Amino acid sequence: MKKARRQADWRARYRHGRQLTVLLSFCAALVVIASLEAIILLGPVAYQVWQEMFPAGSPGDFAAFLLTRFFFDILVPVSLALYSYFTIRRLGTPASYRLIWGAVVLMSAIWKFLTFETASPAWYLTLLLWIGLFLVVINIRRLERGTSEREDAHELSKDRR
């Protein structure tokens, strides 16, 4: 009886492990790229360019602009990562999850594309990551481990003990 309960607990715990790993990796990469972009834009050259565009702006306005841009760049990946981490074990990934988050990720990718920051290599990398995240979200069911794989892995781990 205890053995069956342990196997059921193990299956519930690790059922979505691969899905979460791939999804959280894409989200983390998007947050890291946005952080690096914000750090690069903090330099004096970027401030001079911004000052030329907005001569009446103060350094506080520039800082507010950078923080707002950074916040909007990380909003969707952080929200998706947190939502998925806390709910995927209980709710799984139903069609509504894939539809809603797929639409949100697609809109974010289009928003990033429409910025046309073609001089920045980070823009291209970010677009690739958004496309990858979109494909992961809409195909997340395919990343779930099969029952036989889980049982085989569990049996191997028991044999090693």
Number of strands: 0
Q: Estimate the global geometry from the Cα principal axes.
A: elongated
Please report the distance between the alpha carbons of the first and last residues.
20 Å
Helix content: over 70%
Radius of gyration: 21 Å
The residue-averaged pLDDT reads 84
| Number of helices, where a helix is a run of at least 4 consecutive DSSP H or I residues | 7
The major beta sheet can be summarized as:
none
Q: List the helices and strands in order.
A: HHHHHHH
| Structural class label | mainly alpha
Q: Spans with pLDDT under 50 lasting ≥5 residues?
A: none
| Strand coverage percent | under 5%
User: Which quaternary structure do these chains form?
Assistant: single chain
Describe this structure in words.
This protein is an all-alpha fold. It has one domain (17-143). The chain contains 7 helices and no strands. Helix 2 (17-41) runs antiparallel to helix 4 and helix 2 (17-41) runs antiparallel to helix 6. The longest helix is centred in the middle third of the chain and has 33 residues, at 59-91.
List the helices and strands and how they pair.
Blueprint: H1 2-14, H2 17-41, H3 44-53, H4 59-91, H5 95-113, H6 121-138, H7 147-160
Helix pairs in contact: 1-7, 2-4, 2-6, 5-6
